[in-house]
Known about the structure:
The complex is a heterodimer of chains A (365) and B (601). With 365 residues, chain A is mainly α. Helix content of chain A is 69%, strand content 2%. The longest helix of chain A is centred in the C-terminal third of the chain and has 33 residues, at 258-290. The radius of gyration of chain A is 21 Å and the shape is globular. Chain B folds into two domains: 53-237, Alpha-Beta Complex (Penicillin-binding protein 2a (Domain 2)); 243-280 and 305-600, 3-Layer(aba) Sandwich (Beta-lactamase). Chain B is built from 23 helices and 19 strands. The relative contact order of chain B is 0.10. With 601 residues, chain B is of the alpha+beta class. At the A-B interface, helix 7, helix 9, helix 10, helix 12 and helix 13 of A face helix 1, helix 2 and strand 1 of B.
Amino acid sequence: MTFNIQKINKTILLLMLCFVCLGLALLYDAAGGKMDPWAKSQLIRFAIGLGIMTCIIITPIKFWIKYAYSFYFMVLGMLSLVLIMGHTGMGAQRWLKLGPIQIQPSEMMRVSLILALACYYHRRTYEEIQKISTLLIPMLMILIPTALVAKQPDLGTAIMIFLSGVMVLFIAGVPKRVFIISGIGLISLIPIAWTFLHTYQKKRVLTFLNPERDPFGAGYHIMQSKIALGSGGLFGKGFMAGTQSHLNFLPEKQTDFIFTLFAEEFGFVGSILLLIGYLVTIITGIYLGYRCHSIFCRLVAIGLSCTIFLYVAINIAMVIGLVPVVGVPLPFISYGGTAMWTLLITVGFILNADRNHDRRLERYY
Amino acid sequence: MSARAIESLSSRITTLIVVIILVFLSLAGRLYYLQVYKSSHYLTLSDKNRIQTTPIKPERGRILDRNGTVIAHNQPRYHAAFDRRKNKNFSKALSTIQTILNLTEEEIADIEKQVETVPKYIPLELKRNLSWQELSTLEINSFDIPGLEILQSEERVYPYGESLSHVLGYVAKPNQEDLNNNILLSVPGVVVGKNGLEKYYNEDLSGEFGTLMTENNARGQKIRTLSKEQAVAGEDITLTIDLPLQNHIYELLKPHKSAAAIVMDIKTGEILALVSIPGYDPNLFTKGISSRQWQSLLKAENNPLTNKTISGLYSPGSLIKTFIAYALLSEPKVGPNFTLGCDGKYPVGSHTFHCWKKIGHGQTNLLKALMQSCDIFFYKTTQLLGIDKLITTLSQFKMGQKTGIDLEHEKAGLLPSPQWKKQRYSQRWWPGDTINLSIGQGALLTTPLQWVYGIAKIANGGQELQPHLRKGAGEYFAPPSKKDPHLTYIQKALDHTVNSPGGTGHHAKLDIPDFHVAGKTSTSQVRRITMKERQQGIRSVAETPWHLRDNAIFTGYAPAQNPRYALTLIVEHGGWGGRTTGPLVKNIFQYIYTHLYKKNA
Lengths: 365, 601
């Protein structure tokens, strides 16, 4: 099939571009009105990412169905490698160095897991999916990388991998009782696990759940973040006029806490507009998935839209003190190469799935 | 796609979107609360960020012995500190403070380093442990220098310094690595455990920092306290150590230049005494040890900083025979009734191995071989046994393995094996290597803790053990359900070694009817007597210089009838095992009998 640019969805592309521009403006802002050190390199990364995204969009969808598993196992292998190399102290645990390129396999796992799960369910009938036994392999596919990433330890990414996998299972049609029962099971396990912990471990968990117990570590960030956000008020202090962020009270203002900088300067109105922008992006993604004829395309588009949702929800909930600080970036806006590329890859797959939305794809290639 | 599937998909997607919208609504709600409802509150706070959060130092937990005697506690002290949030011009203030406190160049350099690394919410530490003179001068001047503060904190005190030095370790000012892990440790007066139990249980002992949140005016003066979260004091830790016994053994062994001893409850793995000679004064470290003192400790003879019970690596010598006997008893080719003749010599290839007794022991069975420590018997029987079975048994007794005691710097040692030799030296394993191993010499390296573990396992009938120093820290295991006849046999032999005529341990014989000592002596070579020396008539290492003399070792337990306490003792370069250690062993067990055994009975 020839590539037809008319078939590319413009809404998502346009919104994405808006986010990236906003991100660049905020990075310029965070550096005190300079392109260095963040905005310029982010722009370069975005350009490279656009190239990767284009490659993903124009690759025939058959190719991705055929190699979804291989891709998954490759990333899984890299994850294990990171753990092993980390243990022998040959480098930071999250990163894998391949020549001059550093990659973070845990980020790539978010995408490859969804592709693999989509491929798995693509090859099952509705009746097969209703059986509990069909669930065994997908559960392993989710839990193994989750455990590996949690062991790094990168709890934020582990939770995201787990949740996005579960969301794919939900859309794929796994019986609802499975979710209800395992949800209840997980919750009832917590008190039992609690009794096995040492006193100091309990203290750590409590601090983790409530960072304000630790006002000089994570709690310090949260408190400063809340002051910055709150002082922004309804309309904000204006672009480049955020006092808290610029007085260096705010840590990590260019990465995970960039939303604070934005909210301080653009106020409640700005925050809500940004939230609406994300909501439109996510729901458009889900809609694109919904109208797909093949299970693979549908699950890829919806699953990946859900990961964008998880990014946004966890990041914002984190900076406004609703959940513990776990290190999840704000999509398209936070400074950081791997996150930017992963998101562009994500969008690439959504758009590829969408341009094949009216095709009925074979189960095996 | 079936109709049911389509219907299911629509309903699920609806659910998903509803969830997503609900999450976004709650985010929006929270944002409304922060940015609209509470906006003026946060606007006030953001006004030059007038809210100050100051950490409150927790008190370090104490350490107690098994009877509740305090063996490490804190004593109030005062520190001079400087809060940079209250006075922006620190460098000017420093020159005034420098003259008041007589700060040295070194101290000034340290303060300047703090200025760069310590965040503003933590006061700078100017000087620790102020004298009364310094304190009063500072009190008078503190009004003129805003930011200057006198803080109370504690200094660690070890009332039984040297005796417990290797058990407790010591605390000291946090170093750069500690600070990288937790910058709060730069709060003035904070100490961290650097060795021994202070380090192993540092986390539990340290407690948690509290927080004082105050609202200040533009000059940095406090207007009011917003909130105060008290610091959580560190836990008190109770040890299994019996302080009187520990002190007794320390005083007893102190005249020997270099020695170590452990007393352990053979049923629970609780360590009652753990002594390494020489000790050092841990109080030196709390006060901030000078580099001259540190250097002299490092260079001091007999390594006072090394805990010899867990980090001292020794050839065990003949005490290894106790454990080898267990392998021999289960070996069909040997067994309890095997007898051979010992004529003092055993030629293997071109080399002749000797028994410690020149004329030999004559007809010898395992019982006699253990009692009189016949080398030839073990040379020959281990050849029959084979190296693999020998290694398996020695591993069961944890020779060359860590026991997992709750102390830092435990060493494993080395249990040589054919695989090890091949890897290390690319050489094959010779019969001579097995022969060396059979009398606890050669490449074999073990710690006194491993010996006491091994002997306790023999004394308690094979029950598993976890040696530990903190009460309740070790796992407790059930005793084996039935008696192991081989262990009973070894117990009998160890009883005879001490209590029967001709046994090598008769020096340790204790004349208390219900409290007999059982055990094995050992004289482990520091250096082999060369063939040349042998020809010159030097047979005993006692005739060589002190640092080349043999280590004298005893490992045993009491009461022999119903074992309870295991004891391991090594006197470095103490010469002949039985003679040197015998009186010491007797003395220690006598003490245990009067002060522990009879009291508990």
